[in-house]
Write a structure and sequence with these properties.
Radius of gyration: 16 Å
Order of helices and strands: EEHHEHEEEHEHEEEE
CATH superfamily: Dihydrofolate Reductase, subunit A
CATH topology: Dihydrofolate Reductase, subunit A
Structural class: alpha/beta
Helix content: 10-25%
Largest sheet: 9 strands, mixed
């Protein structure tokens, strides 16, 4: 069976998004700091259609993270578009433009039904209203034997962690304090046998990899 692989950037005080998230500040106030380590990487820029970039200790971590992924699961907050029912007059299509960087099926956890959204470059968004297990089943079928990425945000991750469904977890620990926002492990009381197997120290980040034994 394919693995569910969770990856996320986190501050030293445990937050994966800053306070006051909005359409103008999708990662909350200060939340952009959590991803400054990855933006210059060639391994990140290439899938986003950008040239150039640096190669450093984070490069093999990022390449491993992107390898063998056939589908992605994310929460409604990560997909965006504000809470509540979807707009019928101006439907939200995500943060990534017409050609998102996923290039495979993406399953969005939501309480509000919506028809699938087909984008350029092989990305499709399917909106799942019947729970995390259903989303994982659909993602595994769509992945065709490859692994499934769990992209966040915090609430989606908490549900899968609490249920013991995460097979691998990659935490990118960033040396900054946000002081508020969405804390990753709120309500998570056990890692369900996820053991730390690797640490990588890189510029502006420490990568911590956990694998279910």
């Amino acid at each position: 069976m394919s693995k569910l692989r969770f990856r996320i950037s986190m501050s030293l005080d445990g937050f994966v998004a800053g306070p006051s998230q909005s359409l103008q500040e999708p990662l909350g106030i200060g939340g952009e700091q959590l991803h400054e380590w990855v933006f210059p990487l060639e391994a990140w820029r290439r899938p986003h259609g950008m040239d150039g970039g640096v190669v450093n200790e984070s490069t093999p971590v990022m390449e491993e993270e992107l390898a063998n992924i056939g589908a992605t699961i994310m929460g409604r907050n990560m997909f965006g578009g504000a809470p509540g029912p979807w707009s019928k007059t101006d439907p939200w299509t995500g943060w990534w433009g017409r050609n998102p960087p996923f290039h495979h099926p993406v399953f969005v956890l939501t309480h509000h039904a919506r028809d699938p959204l087909i984008m350029e470059g092989g990305t499709s968004f399917t909106f799942v209203t019947d729970g995390i297990e259903s989303a994982l089943d659909q993602a595994r079928r769509a992945a065709g034997g490859k692994d499934v990425a769990l992209a966040g945000g915090a609430r989606a991750a908490q549900q899968y962690l609490k249920a013991g469904l995460v097979d691998e977890m990659q935490l990118h620990l960033v040396p900054t304090l946000l002081g508020g926002g969405e804390r990753l492990f709120d309500g998570v009381e056990t890692l369900h046998a996820l053991d730390m197997v690797k640490t990588v120290v890189a510029p502006n980040v420490v990568h911590l990899k956990f694998v279910r034994k």
